[in-house]
Amino acid sequence: MYRKLIFLTGLCTIMIALACEKQTLMGSPEAESLQLEALRQEVDSLAAQYSCADVEQWRFTAIGEKACGGPAGFIAYSTQMDTTAFLIKVATYTELQKEYNRKWDVVSDCMLLLPPDRIICEGGKPKLVWDEPVTEEQ
Predict the structure, then answer these.
(1) Which of 31, 74, 121, 133 could lock 52 by a disulfide, CB 3.0 to 4.6 Å apart?
(2) pLDDT digits over 8-38, tens only?
């Protein structure tokens, strides 16, 4: 029950944040792109505040949206942070990038990005790892 309440609260917060962000994202593609970049830097900065020593304290999520659909990338985050607020900020960024792509007819490659297989800690920072696919010899 408590998880449902947290989820609904987070969802409402996303909707409010998106409504507020929509009002500020007006103007030229360059100005809106700068606003998106600033929001992405904020997200990256929040994630970078935590040192990676125990990989069990790290998760990842999709971030951004390509013009053809699908995530633009993935970002690692620590479970020690306020994950609800962080994921709301990521969702806001993703929705705004989706709107930007639609509004300005952005073109991108349509290559599907697969999620990473795991996270490792390297030099105190999380690193997303994609394992090489196993190929069968015919």
Answers:
(1) 121
(2) 555 555 655 555 544 444 689 999 999 999 9
Partner residues linked to 78 by β-bridges = 58
Determine the structural domain holding residue 9 and report its residue range: 2-129
* Residues 128/74, Cβ–Cβ less than 8 Å: yes
Which pTM does this prediction carry?
Answer: 0.77
Flag whether 74 is in a domain. yes
One DSSP character per residue, 76-106 reads EEETTS-HHHHHHHHHHHHHHHHHHHHHTT-
For residue 55, is it within any domain? yes
Per-residue model confidence as pLDDT tens digits over 98-138:
999 999 999 999 999 999 999 999 999 999 999 986 555 54
- Measured CA to CA, the distance from residue 94 to residue 88 in angstroms comes to 10
What residues contact 132, with CB distance under 8 A and at least 6 apart? none
Asked if residue 91 belongs to a domain, the reply is yes
